[in-house]
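Before drawing any conclusions, I looked closely at one protein, both as residues and as discrete backbone shape codes, quoted below without any editing:
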Amino acid sequence: MFGRITGVDPGLGQLVSLYGIDPDGSDLVQILDCETERPRFSRDGRQLAFSIVMTNGSWQIATSTPDGSGLRVIPTSAPGWADTLDWSADGSWFVYSFAPDPCVPGRDPCVLRDDYTEHLWRMNVDGSDQRPLGNPDTFDWEPRISPDGREVVFDRWSNGDGDAKVVMIRDLVTGAERAVTSGSSKPEHPEWSPDGRWIIYNTQLAADGAPMERVERVPADDPTAKPTVLFGDKTHHGYKPTYSPDGSRIAFGCDRRLCSMNADGSHVVVLYEEPGVEINHFAWGVVRSGG
């Protein structure tokens, strides 16, 4: 699944409509034509969750079946942005980032407040038990729960201007945190491998500070390990990587297209491209026999 970018809001960022495509690049179909972001499949592949733009300008969490039917909005307890969500390992709750008051009052379109931050929250899939998860004094965003359900990986931003400083892992029971990358390359969009051994992400900067989006991989349990570059350089950009459910392939954005590659970075294939349109916001669902 991927998003076709239909516009960019000054405050909200990328707005996408969702499309589905088979892993071999065939059978393209539009799933939803509303303004959404960051789709995530439940672990069993039976449900899709994402953030959706409401008429009041807020982001709320919504779910549907993988074909887009049964759309259901799950309002958060306060206006604002609920975004970059993920399913718990057992499918009973969501983790997400939340900004209760992101915009300067009276500014339309949204202009971000100087003190704008987002923090990690959780809630049950029915919308109950909404509460903070993690450090309320840090800017934390884009959480992803580990396959065993014990930890969450996320971006910790250095400030409110959208710069990711470091990728962090938090133990959901003890609250202990550890960094898995340095901040020199401004890493973003972390993702677990299905076996929990690896974290993949994309960089924003090269060592010399030049813009460079490339897909890298690091061990989840060794913050001293040197990252392995899977795709990308100063000419060819890779971003928002996501594993296939069996961990053998990675889907990602490559120069405004949808690509896939083996988990070691080999055999890069372009699955979909559309002239003049950026393809972004990727998710890989479970292939289920019998529809």
